[in-house]
Each structure stands twice: as C-alpha cells, then as structure tokens.
Amino acid sequence: MKKILIGGNWIDTNNYIDVINPYTGKAIDAVSKASSDHLKEAIESAVRGSKIMKGLSRHRRYEILSKTAELMMKRKDEIAMTMALESGKPLAYSKGEVSRAHETIVLSAEEAKRLGGEVIPFDAAPTSSDKYCFYIRVPVGIVLSITPFNFPLNLVCHKIGPAIAAGNSVIHKPASKTPLTSLLLGEILLEAGLPKDALNIVICSAEDAENYLVKSPLIRKISFTGSKVIGERIASNAGLKKLSMELGSNSGVIIDENTDVDKAVSAVKVGAFGYSGQVCIHCQRAYIHESIYEEFKKKIVSAANNLVIGDPTEMTTDIGPMIDEKELLRVKSWIDEAKSQGAKVLCGGERDGFVFKPTVIENVTEEMKVVKDETFGPTLSLIPFRDFKEAVSKLNNSIYGLQAGVFTENVRNAYYAIDNLDVGGVMINDVPTFRIDMMPYGGLKSSGYGREGPKYAVEEMTEIKCVRFHI
Length: 471
Fold this sequence. Notes:
This protein is an alpha/beta fold.
C-alpha cells in the first residue's frame, strides 16, 4: 500500500486506488487517493517550499539533482520492473527509459549552473547613454506537473528536473494508472537532499486536480502532457498562469524514392509498434513513394509479424499490452471501422489477450479515424505517393503537428520538408518517434505549445526580472 507525499511526509489517506498490471488484469498494489483537503495541504507545503527553493544556491540545486541521478542508477532495476508491471511497457523499453530519465536529470543539474541573465546595452538608445541594464531569471514559484501513463519516469523527470533546477517547488500529479514510479522518484529526491516542502506527489481525480490545483492562483506554472481534450480544459481553467502543453499527434513519415528500404523498415518498425504505439510521436502514417511501395509493404508486414508478443517483464518481449481494455477496444473499433470503409488489413487487427497485435493497413482515406485522429495504438497506415510535395501536403493535413520523419537521399527534398512541414520537429532520415532528451521538444497546432528539454523547460519555469541602474 503506497502513500502520497505532502510536506516530506508519506500520508495514508484511507482511500485507495488499485494499480492494475495491464498484462494480467490483476492489481499489483494500491495507492492512497488525495482528498480536496490533502490537495490544499500540498499547496500550502509548496508555498513554503517555493521560498526555500528560491534561497537555494544554483550549486546546491545542482548537487541535489546530481545525487538524484546517482541514486536512480543504483535502483535502476527496481524502477524498470516497476514500470513494466504498472504500465505494461516491455522491460527492455523500461530499462531504456530509466537510462533516458537519468540523462534528463543530469541535464537538468547542468542547467541549474547555467541559469543566468543578460546585459542590455542601454547606450544603444540615444537617451540612455548614462544608464546600465541587465536582467536575471528568477523562479516562477510553484510548478504543477501533470503526466500521462506512457512514460511514467522520463516525462516526470522532464518536468520535476527543470523545475528544481530553476529554483521552484513542485506539485506532481502522476497518471492514476501508473503512480508507483513517480512515488519511487519522490523517495529518491528526498534521499538526495531535496527540501521536504519542495516536492509534493498527489494521486487524485481529474475533477479535483482541476478544481483545487489547476485553478489555484498560488500555482504559477503548469506543465502538462496528455490528451488534447484535457489540455483544452486545463487551459480554459488555469487563469493567468504560464502553460506548457504537449497534447499528442498522429505523426507521419515520408519515405522517398531511392531510400534504403531496409533502413526505413527497421526504424518504422520501432516507431510504429514500440510500446504498442502508446507514444505521442508514434509513427502512425507512412507516405511511401510508389516506386518502392510494394517492397516496403512486404518488408514492414514481415517485420510486424516477427515481433515477439508476451509478458512485458520478459526481456525478449517486443509487444506488451495496451494500458487497459477500454483503449484496446477503442483501437480495434477504429480498425474495424476502417475495414468497413474499404481499408485492407495486411496484418494484425485483432487482440491476443490484453495485447493488440501490430497492425498494418492500406487503402485508407484521409477521413478515416486511423489516419486523421490519434490512434495511440500499434497501427500503421500505408499511403503511396508520386510527388514529394504532395506527400508533404498530405502529412500536413492534420490538426496535429508534433514531429514528422523524412527518409530521402535528395537534399532539395529534405530542405523542402524542413521548410514546409507544419510540425515542431523534422527528423531527416529517421522516424518522427526519434527524441533526444536535450532537444527542444514540442509541437504546433493542436499538438500544443511550449518546449521540453531541460534547457528550454528551465526558461519556461522562470520569469525575467529586469534591473536598471542610473549612475
């Protein structure tokens, strides 16, 4: 039975939420659920914590985060297994996420040292030659971090790490389906020396989070990763706060003529089916030049059929379960609907227990849900094209714009894609699923706004204070 963290104390609320292993459908633990009173206590703690954190030197913040990274690696196997059990993420992917999260915390520690300001050359103005000006960056105060189930460690580190580096306190609300990893991280941060009021971790209903956290005027910054629908609700209720929103996508890849097909297939296999497609930058649409379409189709279907389906706690497993039955049935209904509208399922399209088999489909149209909406499942739609500019136009035909991939040996086409794709990131000769944790990550259109990556998140979690001297 796990407890929530408020003011450095682990609190049993006597009201619990079961944590379900999505592969077995059975409870593996339970966590205390916060009431409205607990959320108010968390805010009070965070107010105290913000004052303490503001007074911590940059070097002390660096030390705390560096120690956190060290302790994470000492417990890496425990953390990875916890993720595999609560999220259904295959163990090999979970171990990879621990390594990435370690890097995210290390990068955050380094940014704590770099956080500075800039001199403004006031003598550039004709009336200010005897004045001096500079600005410094100061913490916003309290950061509210809200994360989804699919990356229960690294996405959390992308919010908590930069918030601490910038000198803020944090209230963190993890997904109710995957809270255990966040609570482990909380233990580690306290052991690393983080002041007790600087981090509060609460598990609560979306309604309570909205009413008591999102709407609170004491919280100055919200960093949210999740669905477009919830993001819009947060934005409409937050009031005058700084917001960062990463709201998903239906990312596409263009595979141009003369591309190394085997290289493209190898990358698309992971981009489309890794963690059962439950990734914001999941490679959902593939636009393939007609000259290599049949070759690519044959090879990607073979690759999908050879993926190992099984228990996510086994290192040999490639494909584990969807997060729950509801999501599995939703993805299946979208595939069945596409079939009824003329699409052809080349492989998959059905369940194996709590696993949805890797699915490749063709003969799709832009009106089908599997093309225009975010499937968040192991699906890949194949769409042939003749003209590269046409492929770019079709990829852009979406309300989303997070990332896109382009495989091409044609430099002109590469630069055309860079200039014309309406997305936050263009991955040349890779899938849209590529991400390095130091890069500025975020999207356009309904994929949200703001950027993650410790350097950029730190900037969004600070305010500029301008100082002017008249001597």
